[in-house]
Design brief:
Number of strands: 3
Distance between the termini: 33 Å
Order of helices and strands: HHHEEE
Shape: globular
Largest sheet: 3 strands, antiparallel
Helix content: 10-25%
């Protein structure tokens, strides 16, 4: 997708990929399941499944309709611990 400064939020990569013609679901999968396949870690990362290393994020809207929703994460869970919870606020 090209380079962006490391001081910028990485989530903007989704908006850029979609603006270049990628479907929103393909952009999301490029950061999850497809990356896992490329790293030969299918089923271990990039999925939400028992035994998998996963982070769970939630946004208020539908990123398939507005990919920029992924720039406004409201909930983050990692390894079973909640790191951010702005849901219901």
């Amino acid at each position: 997708m090209g380079g962006i400064p490391w001081t910028e939020p990485i989530a903007q990569e989704f908006k850029r990929m979609v603006s270049m013609g990628m479907a929103p679901m393909d952009a999301i999968q490029s950061a999850t399941s497809r990356s896992a396949e490329m790293l030969d870690m299918k089923g271990e990362i990039g999925v939400i499944a028992a035994g998998a290393y996963a982070e769970v994020v939630a946004v208020a809207g539908d990123p398939l309709k507005d990919i920029t929703e992924l720039e406004h994460v409201r909930f983050v869970m990692h390894d079973g611990s909640i790191f951010k919870n702005e849901i219901g606020k």
